[in-house]
C-alpha cells in the first residue's frame, strides 16, 4: 500500500484552503449532488405522468449519502465512464429504481448541473468571506483615518495622505470585486434538462411529443435544485464562457489582494505597518533577527496562481467544438476547484493579516518629518510673500537651499536641514514659530478623513450590516 508521504499531496488541500471550501469540491458533495439530481429528475417525470412509483423515488432518497466508492471505482475501470459507473452503483443499492435512474438524460445532466451548483455554493462562501475582509479593513480605515502618513507616487515621497485613506483604496478595490461576485451569483443559471445535444429530443420522445411537458420538466428540475432561472439554450454542455466569467471574478479578488499584500510588504520594509508576527515565529533560518512578511508573500504567491488560472478558462471556452468536445473535462476538474480553493486561501490569510496589522505611529511621524520640509516649501513661499517678500526671489532661494539640503542627505548621510537654512536666511524673514506652525502634518491631508468616512458610510456599511450575521473563525494559519 502506498503511503501518503510517497505520493504528491496538493498544498491547497494540505496547507491553505478551508474545510468549508474543501467540502464543496469533495467527492461526497459532488456525487451526492448527482444522486439528488437523479431524484429531482425522477420526481419531476413522475409528476408529469411518467410511470415512476413513489417506492422507486423513496428508495433513491434512502441511499443519497451511502455511496459505495469501491463499486464505482471497479466499474469505472471496466467501462471507462464515470457517470455510468455511478448509475451502476446507485442501481445496485436501488434495485426498484434502477430502470428509471438517469432516464432520458446525458452525462452533462449531472456533470454540468453539479458544476454550476458547486460554483454557486463556492461563490456564496467567497462573498461572505470577502464581506468579512471588508469589515476588518473598514474598521482599520476608520481607526486611522486622521493619522497623516507619507503618500507615494512611483514609490517616491509625494503629498501626505492618511493611513486610513490609503487602506480605503484597498477597500474600494475589494468593493468592486464584491459587486462582481454578487453579480455572478445573481446571474448564474442552471443547465437544466436539455438532452444529448441540447435539443431535448429524448425527453420529447418520453413525453410523446408533448412540448409543454418537456418545458415543464426543465423548469421543475431547475427549481427543485434551487435555481430560479435556466440557461435558455445549450449544446450538450453549458457554454464554458460561464466558467471564464466566474473565474474572472475570482481573478479580480486575487489582483486586489496581490496589490494590497505588495503595499503591506513595502510598508513593512519602511517599518511603518507590519503584518502579525507570532511570539515563536522564525523569520529566517540564517538571520534570526528578521521579521519577514510571509503572510503577505503567501497571498501574493497564491493570487498569481489564481490570476493565471483565468487564462486557462479562456482557452477552454475558445477551443470548444460545435455542441461539445471532451477536451474541457480534465482541465475543468483541475482549474475550477483550484481557482476557488486558492481564492478561499488568500481570503483566509487576509483575514489573519487584517485582524492583526500593527501600526508604528512614531516611525510614520519620523518618516514624515524627514520629507515634510521639502513638501511645505510652497507654503513657506506664500507666508514669506505675505510678510512682504518677492515670490520670484524666494522661489530661487528655496530651490538653492533644497538642492543643498538634498545633497547633504544623499551624499553626506546627514539630516534634512532645509528649514534651518530658511530660518537663517534673512530673505524669508520668518520666525521659528511661523515655520513650526507650518510643520503640522494634519494641515496637508486635505479631505482624506471626510472622503473615507463618506465612502464607508455610503458603500461599505450597508454590505457589512447585511452580512453581519455570517462569520467564519479567524484562526492561525495552518503553517
From TrEMBL:
Family designation: Belongs to the lyase 1 family. Adenylosuccinate lyase subfamily.
Cross-referenced Pfam families: ADSL_C, Lyase_1
UniProt record, GO biological process: 'de novo' AMP biosynthetic process; 'de novo' IMP biosynthetic process; amino acid biosynthetic process
CDD domains (alphabetical): Adenylsuccinate_lyase_2 (cd03302)
UniProt-listed InterPro entries: AdenyloSucc_lyase_C, Fumarate_lyase_CS, Fumarate_lyase_fam, Fumarate_lyase_N, L-Aspartase-like, Pur_lyase
Pathway: Purine metabolism; AMP biosynthesis via de novo pathway; AMP from IMP: step 2/2; Purine metabolism; IMP biosynthesis via de novo pathway; 5-amino-1-(5-phospho-D-ribosyl)imidazole-4-carboxamide from 5-amino-1-(5-phospho-D-ribosyl)imidazole-4-carboxylate: step 2/2
Documented EC number(s): 4.3.2.2
Reactions that this protein is recorded to catalyse: N(6)-(1,2-dicarboxyethyl)-AMP = fumarate + AMP; (2S)-2-[5-amino-1-(5-phospho-beta-D-ribosyl)imidazole-4-carboxamido]succinate = 5-amino-1-(5-phospho-beta-D-ribosyl)imidazole-4-carboxamide + fumarate
UniProt superkingdom: Bacteria
GO cellular component: cytosol
Record key words, sorted: Amino-acid biosynthesis, Lyase, Purine biosynthesis
Gene Ontology MF, one: (S)-2-(5-amino-1-(5-phospho-D-ribosyl)imidazole-4-carboxamido) succinate lyase (fumarate-forming) activity
Sequence ranges assigned to domain Adenylosuccinate lyase C-terminal in this UniProt record: 372-456
PANTHER family for the chain: ADENYLOSUCCINATE LYASE
Organism: Tindallia magadiensis
Keyword Chaperone belongs to the record: no
Taxonomic lineage: Bacteria, Bacillati, Bacillota, Clostridia, Peptostreptococcales
Enzyme class: lyase
SMART domains: ADSL_C (SM00998)
Protein name: Adenylosuccinate lyase
Amino acid at each position: 500500500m502506498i503511503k501518503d508521504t510517497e505520493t504528491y499531496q496538493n498544498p491547497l488541500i494540505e496547507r491553505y484552503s478551508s474545510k468549508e471550501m474543501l467540502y464543496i469540491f469533495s467527492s461526497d458533495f459532488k456525487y451526492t449532488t448527482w444522486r439528488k439530481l437523479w431524484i429531482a429528475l425522477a420526481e419531476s417525470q413522475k409528476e408529469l405522468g411518467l410511470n415512476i412509483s413513489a417506492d422507486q423515488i423513496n428508495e433513491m432518497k434512502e441511499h443519497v449519502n451511502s455511496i459505495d466508492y469501491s463499486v464505482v471505482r471497479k466499474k469505472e475501470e471496466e467501462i471507462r465512464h464515470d457517470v455510468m459507473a455511478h448509475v451502476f452503483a446507485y442501481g445496485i443499492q436501488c434495485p426498484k429504481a434502477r430502470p428509471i435512474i438517469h432516464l432520458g438524460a446525458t452525462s452533462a445532466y449531472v456533470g454540468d448541473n453539479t458544476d454550476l451548483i458547486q460554483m454557486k455554493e463556492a461563490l456564496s462562501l467567497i462573498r461572505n468571506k470577502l464581506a468579512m475582509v471588508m469589515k476588518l479593513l473598514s474598521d482599520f480605515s476608520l481607526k486611522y483615518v486622521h493619522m497623516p502618513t507619507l503618500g507615494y507616487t512611483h514609490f517616491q515621497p509625494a503629498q501626505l495622505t492618511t493611513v486610513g485613506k490609503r487602506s480605503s483604496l484597498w477597500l474600494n478595490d475589494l468593493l468592486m470585486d464584491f459587486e462582481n461576485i454578487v453579480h455572478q451569483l445573481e446571474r448564474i443559471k442552471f443547465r437544466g434538462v436539455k438532452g444529448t445535444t441540447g435539443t431535448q429530443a429524448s425527453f420529447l420522445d418520453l413525453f410523446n411529443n408533448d412540448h409543454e411537458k418537456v418545458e415543464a420538466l426543465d423548469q421543475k428540475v431547475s427549481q427543485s435544485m434551487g435555481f430560479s432561472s435556466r440557461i435558455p439554450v445549450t449544446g450538450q454542455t453549458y457554454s464554458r464562457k460561464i466558467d471564464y466569467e466566474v473565474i474572472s471574478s475570482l481573478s479580480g479578488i486575487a489582483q486586489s489582494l496581490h496589490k494590497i499584500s505588495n503595499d503591506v510588504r513595502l510598508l513593512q520594509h519602511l517599518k511603518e505597518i507590519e503584518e502579525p508576527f507570532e511570539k515563536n515565529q522564525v523569520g529566517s533560518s540564517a538571520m534570526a533577527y528578521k521579521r519577514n512578511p510571509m503572510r503577505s508573500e503567501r497571498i501574493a504567491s497564491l493570487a498569481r496562481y489564481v490570476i493565471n488560472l483565468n487564462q486557462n478558462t479562456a482557452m477552454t471556452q475558445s477551443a470548444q467544438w460545435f455542441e461539445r468536445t471532451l477536451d474541457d473535462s480534465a482541465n475543468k476538474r483541475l482549474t475550477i476547484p483550484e481557482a476557488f480553493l486558492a481564492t478561499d486561501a488568500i481570503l483566509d490569510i487576509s483575514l489573519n493579516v487584517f485582524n492583526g496589522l500593527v501600526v508604528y505611529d512614531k516611525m510614520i511621524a519620523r518618516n514624515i518629518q524627514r520629507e515634510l520640509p521639502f513638501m511645505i516649501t510652497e507654503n513657506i513661499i506664500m507666508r514669506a510673500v505675505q510678510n512682504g517678500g518677492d515670490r520670484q526671489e524666494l522661489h530661487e532661494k528655496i530651490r538653492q537651499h533644497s538642492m543643498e539640503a538634498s545633497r547633504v542627505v544623499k551624499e553626506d548621510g546627514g539630516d534634512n536641514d532645509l528649514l534651518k537654512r530658511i530660518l537663517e536666511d534673512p530673505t524669508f524673514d520668518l520666525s521659528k514659530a511661523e515655520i513650526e506652525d507650518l510643520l503640522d502634518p494634519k494641515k496637508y491631508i486635505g479631505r482624506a478623513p471626510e472622503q473615507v468616512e463618506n465612502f464607508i458610510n455610503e458603500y461599505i456599511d450597508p454590505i457589512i450590516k447585511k452580512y453581519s450575521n455570517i462569520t467564519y473563525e479567524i484562526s492561525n494559519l495552518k503553517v
